[in-house]
């Protein structure tokens, strides 16, 4: 009798153990993730880095099947696919969705305002992360910002742009609503093109010039082969943020512990991406120079005029949309607060003296209308 009882208890224990193993196996989520970037654009490395890190840190709980942009659907469709749950996640640049809400634009980049470390600070310590959740949350998504690049290259083409006077009448490929508005006030016109179309547009003279990304990304996209001139600095995008859209239901299916691992992977990727892109930008710049690209730098007077126009455009956008105003109000409040330390530590703390910013009072007036 004792032997039978012992056997029964042993069998029960084995059954419980087997059930636990089966439960763990069933609990593992399998996600399909794609991105806006095809394999031939180097920005895909940021998305791939996060997906691989998640599979390393949380592979027992969620396994991400990452697919390059364009292999599952066009890049323009990844927002809707993630929102509806057709896929669980997609890497993006928030500015692509500014047509849905202008608040996406400053979540992606700023004109003549934030640098890469500003985004890092703001997202992690000054309330930026919560604003990403608020904006994307309206579309049934959680958002983990995980990529930052510093200011973009500037305009490339076969006509030199040596001053803002040279922008008059120019047709330039440019992303972003606010960026386009600034360009228009400088006398140029904005042309919207997907990243994969820029090379041929410059080569065939469809545009007078174009911006895309950092020097490292631009070089690997082959732009030195079709553009002789490079206008710097990249005032139109003083820094950029990339991240992953996650369907809300897919996120909710994860345990809190697994969700935390995905956030940790995002923060680690964010730090990696900034250093990675700066190294790539340095090497790309050297290669452009070696290939004979002529670099033209805008004057301090030109940059001051761009800043003046930018400030007006930011306030204009704030008065048109409450969420747009809320995001910029948070950003400028951060800059003003940070200036207490930043300005007295120049030139050792990222250099910028914060003495010409959009007016918080004017933005607040728009918010209170």
UniProtKB/TrEMBL annotation:
Q: Per UniProt, which keywords does this protein have? A: Metal-binding, Signal
Instruction: Tell me which residues bind Na(+).
Output: 212
* Residues bound to substrate: 152, 173, 211, 237
What range does the record give for the signal peptide?
1-27
Q: Name one GO molecular function term.
A: metal ion binding
Task: Please give a single GO biological process term from the UniProt record.
Answer: transmembrane transport
Gene Ontology annotations for the cellular component aspect, listed alphabetically: tripartite ATP-independent periplasmic transporter complex
Any Pfam family the entry gives = DctP
Is Metal-binding one of the keywords UniProt gives this record? yes
Q: Does the keyword GTP-binding apply?
A: no
Listed transmembrane segments: none
What's the protein name? TRAP-type mannitol/chloroaromatic compound transport system substrate-binding protein
Q: Which organism is it from?
A: Halomonas fontilapidosi
């Amino acid at each position: 009798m004792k032997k039978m009882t012992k056997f029964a208890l042993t069998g029960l224990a084995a059954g419980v153990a087997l059930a636990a193993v089966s439960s763990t196996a069933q609990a593992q989520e399998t996600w399909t993730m794609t991105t806006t970037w095809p394999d031939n654009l180097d920005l895909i490395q940021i998305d791939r880095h996060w997906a691989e890190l998640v599979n390393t840190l949380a592979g027992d709980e969620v396994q991400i099947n990452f697919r390059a942009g364009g292999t599952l659907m066009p890049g323009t469709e990844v927002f809707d696919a993630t929102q509806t749950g057709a896929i669980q996640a997609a890497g993006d640049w928030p500015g692509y969705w500014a047509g849905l809400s202008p608040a996406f634009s400053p979540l992606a980049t700023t004109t003549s305002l934030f640098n890469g470390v500003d985004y890092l600070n703001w997202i992690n310590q000054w309330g930026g992360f919560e604003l990403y959740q608020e904006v994307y949350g309206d579309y049934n998504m959680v958002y983990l910002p995980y990529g930052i690049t510093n200011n973009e290259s500037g305009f490339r083409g076969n006509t030199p742009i040596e001053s803002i006077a040279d922008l008059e009448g120019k047709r330039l490929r440019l992303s972003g609503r606010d960026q386009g508005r600034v360009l228009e006030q400088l006398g140029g016109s904005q042309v919207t093109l997907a990243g994969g179309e820029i090379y041929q547009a410059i080569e065939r003279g469809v545009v007078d010039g174009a911006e895309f990304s950092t020097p490292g990304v631009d070089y690997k996209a082959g732009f030195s082969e079709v553009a002789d001139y490079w206008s710097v600095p990249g005032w139109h995008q003083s820094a950029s943020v990339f991240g992953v859209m996650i369907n809300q239901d897919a996120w909710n299916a994860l345990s809190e512990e697994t969700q935390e691992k995905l956030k940790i992977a995002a923060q680690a990727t964010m730090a990696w991406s900034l250093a990675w892109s700066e190294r790539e930008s340095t090497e790309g710049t050297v290669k452009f120079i070696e290939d004979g690209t002529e670099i033209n730098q805008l004057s301090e007077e030109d940059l001051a005029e761009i800043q003046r126009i930018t400030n007006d455009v930011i306030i204009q956008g704030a008065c048109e949309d409450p969420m747009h105003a809320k995001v910029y109000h948070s950003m400028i409040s951060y800059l003003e607060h940070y200036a207490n330390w930043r300005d007295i530590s120049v030139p050792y703390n990222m250099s910028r003296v914060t003495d010409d910013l959009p007016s918080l009072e004017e933005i607040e007036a728009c918010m209170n209308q």
